[in-house]
Amino acid sequence: MTIKSDIEIAQACKMSDIGKIAAKIGLSEDDIERYGRYKAKINPIAAMEKSGKSRGKLILVTAINPTPAGEGKTTTTVGLADALQRLGKKTVVALREPSLGPVFGVKGGAAGGGMAQVVPMEDINLHFTGDFHAIAAANNLLAAMIDNHIWRGNALGIDPRRITWRRCVDMNDRQLRFIADGLGGAGNGTPREDGFDITVASEVMAVFCLASDISDLKARLSKMVIGYTYENKPVFAADLNAHGAMTALLKDALWPNLVQTLEGTPAIIHGGPFANIAHGCNSIIATKTARYLGEYCVTEAGFGADLGAQKYLDIKCRADNDLVPDAVCIVATIRALAHHGGAKKEDLNRKDALKKGIDNLLRHADNIKTVYNLPCVVALNRFVTDTEAEINLVRESCAALGISTVLSEVWEKGSLGGALLAEEIIRLCNLPSDFSFSHVEDEDVLDKLNKICKRVYRANGVILTAEAEKQLARLREFGFGSLPVCVAKTQYSFSDDAKKLAAPEDFYITVRNLKVSAGAGFVVALTGDIMTMPGLPKVPAAEKIDVDSSGKITNLF
After folding, report:
1. Which of 521-533 are b and which e, b meaning 16 or more Cβ less than 10 Å from the residue's Cβ?
2. Catalytic annotation on 383?
3. What are phi and psi of 288, to 5 degrees?
4. Which terminal residue of the chain has fewer beta carbons within 10 Å of its beta carbon, N or C?
């Protein structure tokens, strides 16, 4: 039988026992907690001790703004790690955990594709080791304690109309965006308006991924703002004495997860905030563990470089300067660039559209090189429909910026298809760089917003709605006015309008809401029509997924 789908390729893989994968990076059975034969959690303290504090090279993989044509960022990340291993480099790949929302919705999972995947693919894309369930439980414990406190007399004077903490579930469910709860009489709670976010958009997820250890996790949880009193004062999780119990729920989840690629490269997968509504990177603990256990660590940031990479560099690298990358890889496809140039999905090989759409790639590449001062390469994920003329156009356009373009064929050929990319990455990692942030740390929130919008998105600036103006004033009043900024924005465009493709100019970013995530240590700026609870598409992927009598899953994607 011809194997075609990702899940069929993954199910045909003969995985190594997870103990052998751990041994590749110097870990013993005492350093891991097994979840069966092919999954384990790593003791990060033991891992750091085993590493001898020797840092490997760190590569950040990012991409152009995503399109329906597909880019293959995770596939490229996995394939690049396999290619580095093939060249004899001790390599670890560090990825985010997939959310069930996209798995059952439209985007699919996040385990790579073709011959460049992490396995066991079904486990990783579904419940995995239960980390997301623990995060949702911690989030919802706090929600329950808030409403219980109000029902029990409300000694803190919390204004039920100004509770900002929302419940969460790891599923796309638009019906839960805005709800009324506490109904059914006095014995069933206090009626109020409420709502759900998807788990990956919760502040607990952001805190989880930015915490350096269990003590830092507990401290960050304690600082989370849950709402405001009748006297307009912020109320923190610590005021409800919730942070200790929340940490207890998250204690085991905080250890990063170890699995493997199809070619046996160690893969650490941990945490998964969305990049369009959160900071879009796996956990600091996971990336740091991977960097110290390998000669090379390959990690990725969600969606395009204007979201995931910007947040990785401006938020994650501020939280831990050990995580500044030595090189950046920007993934693109001819088909996706043609889409940015106006071509329809079914006709994505028009050269005139490519000429216009390539500006999206060039803007991302120029940002990495000139705003952040990091060496980068363009990985052109090759399709059989790509012509030499189209490939040469991309090469020549990138070369004008002093950036090389390397063809990637890891989906079809695995590590063999990424050999040239790996060689270029090794070269870039040995070049000097002078990394810089896009803005200064102690600037005001509005100044930071303008810097991000002008320098990274190339917008004219920021417009705050009247409500956002009031929120900014309150943030400054409560001492949150100089926190880092996490922009929640459409992933499809540099602008806040998903329809403005390629490299739009002469536009403003409108911020309609500013919400403090004090535990995570940033202010979330919501733009456009971005939602923290996505909905399912007309035909969800869930309609095709099935399992047979032997327990074998089909059509996961």
Report:
1. bbbbbbbbebbbb
2. yes
3. -65, -40
4. N
Q: How far apart are CA 202 and CA 283, in angstroms?
A: 14
Q: Does 75 qualify as catalytic in the annotation?
A: yes
In angstroms, the CA 249 to CA 244 distance is: 9
Q: Which of 50, 107, 318, 355 is catalytic?
A: 107
Residue linked to tokens 């950046």: 328
3-state secondary structure 316-332: HHHHCHHHCCCEEEEEE
Choose the catalytic residue: 411, 437, 480, 507.
Answer: 411
Catalytic residue among 39, 57, 73, 311: 73
Per DSSP, the three-state class of 322 is: helix
List the catalytic residue out of 104, 165, 236, 303: 303
Strand partners, 169: 198
Cβ-count burial 433-455 (b if 16+ within 10 Å, e if not): beeebbbeeebebbbbbbbbbbb
Q: Catalytic: 355?
A: no
Please tell me the distance from the alpha carbon of residue 138 to that of residue 242, in angstroms, as a whole number. Answer: 9
Quick check: is 557 catalytic? no
Residue 96 is among the residues annotated as catalytic for this protein: yes
In three-state secondary structure terms, 467 is: helix
Catalytic-residue membership of 480? no
- CB 239 within 8 Å of CB 249: no
107 is catalytic: yes
* Per-residue pLDDT tens digits of the chain, which is 557 residues long: 455 788 889 889 999 999 999 999 999 999 999 999 999 999 999 888 887 778 899 999 999 999 987 789 999 999 999 999 999 999 999 999 999 998 998 766 778 899 999 999 999 999 999 999 999 999 999 999 999 999 999 999 999 999 999 999 999 999 999 999 999 998 999 999 999 999 999 999 999 999 999 999 999 999 999 999 999 999 999 999 999 999 999 999 999 999 999 999 999 999 988 888 889 999 999 999 999 999 999 999 999 999 999 999 999 999 999 999 999 999 999 999 999 999 876 675 577 899 999 999 999 999 999 999 999 999 999 988 889 999 999 999 999 999 999 999 999 999 999 999 999 999 999 998 899 999 998 899 999 999 999 999 999 999 999 999 999 999 999 999 999 999 999 999 999 999 999 999 999 999 999 999 999 999 999 999 888 999 998 999 899 999 999 999 888 87
- Which DSSP category does 24 fall into? H
Catalytic member of 275, 301, 305, 338: 275
Decide if 196 is catalytic. no
